[in-house]
Amino acid sequence: MIATAVYLIIYSIALLMMVSLGLAVIFGMMKVINLAHGEFMMLGGYACVFCVRSGVPLWLAYVAAAVAVGVFGVIVERVLIRHLYGRIVDTLLATWGLSLFLVGLVTTLFGPQAWSIPTQFGNVGFGGMNFSSYNFVLMAVSFAMVAITWAIARFTTAGLIVRGTMQDSAIASALGVNRDLIYMATFGYGAALAGLAGAVLVPITGASPSVGLFFVGKAFINVIIGGHLPLLGTVLASSLFGTIDGFVSYVWSSVLGEVCVLIVAVILLRLLPLGITGRFRRGL
Amino acid sequence: MSPEFSANAAVPPMVRWWVFVAILTAALFAAPYFMDDAFQLDISIIFVFALLALSMGFLWGYAGILSFGQTIFFGLGGYSYAILALNLGSTNLPFLGALALPAIFAALLGYFMIYGRISDIYLSVITLVVTLIFEKSVRSTSGPEYVIGSVRLNGQNGIPGVPALTLPWLSEPLSISGVYYLAGGAMLFMYVALRMLLTTRLGRVLVGIRENEKRMELLGYDTRLYKLCAFVIAGTVAALSGVLYALWGNFVAPEMFNLNQAAQVVIWVIVGGRSTLIGPMVGAGLVQYLSNWLGTVGVGQVTLVLGLVLMVFVRLFSRGMLPSIGDAIERLRGRHNSNGSPL
């Protein structure tokens, strides 16, 4: 019993972390919530399905999906987002338009039904219940995504520049950093993370035009409550909401889990309007 | 916010505005004599949506609060009416209850968001998430255990057979023409009421807060209370629109909370322009007409077109259509002052 509950909680933390990391990276850099995040995940899912169906091994399909959505993100940044810097509300609206557009486009091209891929992952017995062993793959990818993002930001020169731009973009550009390039790269990286998350979820959910909607609600809450530090915020908020969500879903139902997450989030906003990391001056 | 918003509604409306309202009223009452029932139904639903657009246009354009979740109150109003009316058997009390419940919910939600002083985009996103979760919750209530009073919620399928409204001074439930008059009358009344509200102290303070919240605070106004008032008013207007929707179609469904529905409201307001009150209403009519037309010519995915419309308007005509046309006319007449009286 306890083992099952603990497993479910860790699983929902990992899931939450995975679906919101890309959103958090973009938010942390540009203070913009990308409302098309769910659709980026959806595109990643479709990319993964196409790769697997044409004979590419699953892990390579993940990489391909991340790269494809990353490139798409860069294009979106150049065509749409770039012209709206400094107009946060307009960016929000434009990405919402993009989200509707992508759902419509994908439905037109591939139809409303879910496309799934066969997987050869079996089940494992654990604490008296059977779980798909794929869930462990998902958890591993999720923790790897956070670790790699942290390592890039912490140890590479590019990461240093990105952190500097995040803290003070005016000073960074005065020091010769090409801010537009950094924004574009960050947006692309965030999109790639979303694409990867979508691809990893495909064996569980399949790829359908509305798949993004399953996760975006929790991802948005997670990022807002996380605050302005993308990594620490995501990890802390995911731990909090993953625990609530996992527990309530285990005891009652997953919809009720989501409702509880929302209620806690709204009350938290009254206490911490800037999110959990709102008072932290520095960090990631 | 940005100066492009500059809608100075603080002045009392001019005579020509009253003439305009009088003509609209006359047209509204005369129209059913020239229309068949089907056409009246089509027009009624546009009135209902125009009212929803009006609620958002008021909140966004004048109070500067961008709520993506006007459909929360729209859906909540519809569902409250359906559940109360089916349970109680009468219809007048449920009508009032269906306005009060969403208003209370708006006050609660607004309290946490506005008194927490969360930033504008946080508020937008939170209202969006609330919409999402409402839709999901309602959709998950298909089992027989989800019953309120004697009414099954029915999840995906919604609640059919919502009773028609019987006004206290009439003996029969409203007919199609009755719903038309009710929807049109409610729309016009709310339009005039909100326009007059903007000339009061509350309205002027709201416009002041939109322009510069800190300044209003330093002048001694409790800006949070004013914003909360605006949020509750807009929520109640949206709830009224939801009740009318339930009366129009005699059913309520989770689609009322749908994200696409929420996006449509935003698109109506953006297309029509948010610096006037009439703009969003015209936008609702136009976009609704466009979607119907797209449906009939078989474009298939209406969301695709709506998404494009949203992106194009944000990118190119962020002021919306009516103000842009107004500007063009002013420019043609060689005037540079665009601070004229809004409709």
Structural overview:
The complex is a heterodimer of chains A (284) and B (343). Chain A has one domain (2-116, 125-271): Orthogonal Bundle (ABC transporter involved in vitamin B12 uptake, BtuC), CATH 1.10.3470. Helices cover 75% and strands 3% of the residues of chain A. Chain A is built from eleven helices and two strands, in the order ααααββααααααα. Chain A has helices spanning 2-30, 37-53, 58-79, 88-110, 134-155, 157-167, 169-174, 179-205, 211-226, 230-251, 254-271; strands spanning 123-126, 129-132. Chain A has a two-stranded antiparallel sheet. In chain A, α2 (37-53) crosses α8 (179-205). Chain B has 343 residues and is mainly alpha-helical. Chain B has one domain. In chain B, 68% of the residues lie in helices and 1% in strands. Chain B is built from 13 helices and two strands, in the order αααααββαααααααα. A two-stranded antiparallel sheet of chain B has the order 1-2. The longest helix of chain B has 27 residues, at 223-249. The radius of gyration of chain B is 20 Å and the shape is globular. The chains are: A mainly alpha (284), B mainly alpha (343). The A-B interface holds A 31-33, 35, 80, 83-84, 87-90, 92-94, 96-105, 107-108, 213, 216-217, 220-221, 224, 253, 255, 258-259, 262, 265-267, 269-271, 273 and B 2, 66, 68, 109, 111-113, 115-122, 124-126, 128-130, 132-133, 136-137, 140, 259-260, 263, 266, 270, 300-311, 314-315, 318.
